[in-house]
Specification:
With about 150 residues, this protein is α+β, with helices and mostly antiparallel strands. The protein has one domain: Sandwich (Immunoglobulin-like), CATH 2.60.40. The chain is built from 2 helices and 9 strands, in the order αβββββββββα. The chain has helices spanning about 1-20, 130-145; strands at about 25-30, 40-45, 55-60, 65-70, 75-80, 90-95, 100-110, 110-115, 120. The strands form 2 sheets. Strands 3, 4, 6, 7, 8 and 9 form a 6-stranded antiparallel beta sheet that branches. The protein has a 3-stranded antiparallel beta sheet with strand order 1-2-5, with no helix packed on it. Helix 1 packs antiparallel against helix 2 (about 130-145). The longest helix has 20 residues, at about 1-20. The protein starts with a helix and ends in a 6-residue tail after the last helix.
């Protein structure tokens, strides 16, 4: 009976562990403060609905330049303005700590963000899915080599 329990436990861990790795992804949205305003607001939340407070927000320009915008407040929000030289596609990064990041591609034309064309890249530069798959594979290979007593 103990052996059946341990196999069940390993099976549950193998199935649940990769899902748990994605349990706190960040989801972000950008809106304008007022209709014709240049000021934007980003709001970021963990997938649980909890605000990502104190997350570092930065813009990466098409030329690789970085503009630090600040940190989100207790509600997961930060107001900012697009830099004047901002034509092209900029990457907006929300960094809530290790494994908690969001990446948005923001097309900018004539210094104005085209909010209807923003795209999201939730797994960009995130090795977690590959590491989870590698760990699961290694565990299953190790289990297949265990000799059962006769």
């Amino acid at each position: 009976m103990a052996r059946a329990f341990s196999w069940r436990t390993l099976t549950v861990l193998a199935v649940v562990s990769p899902a748990a790795a994605f349990g706190h992804g960040i989801e972000s949205s950008i809106t304008r403060l007022q209709e014709l305003s240049d000021s934007l607001v980003i709001e970021s939340r963990f997938s649980s609905g909890e605000p990502t407070s104190a997350a570092l927000v930065r813009l990466i320009g098409p030329d690789g330049s970085t503009v630090e915008l600040g940190r989100t407040d207790a509600h997961g929000q930060l107001s900012f303005v697009i830099p004047e030289q901002g034509d092209g596609t900029w990457e907006l990064q929300v960094d809530g700590g290790p494994g908690h990041r969001d990446y948005l591609e923001v097309p900018i034309q004539h210094g104005k963000a085209k909010l209807d064309q923003i795209s999201q890249h939730p797994t960009k530069n995130n090795p977690l899915p590959w590491l989870s798959a590698l760990g699961l594979t290694a565990m299953l290979l190790g289990l297949s080599r265990i000799r059962r007593p006769r």
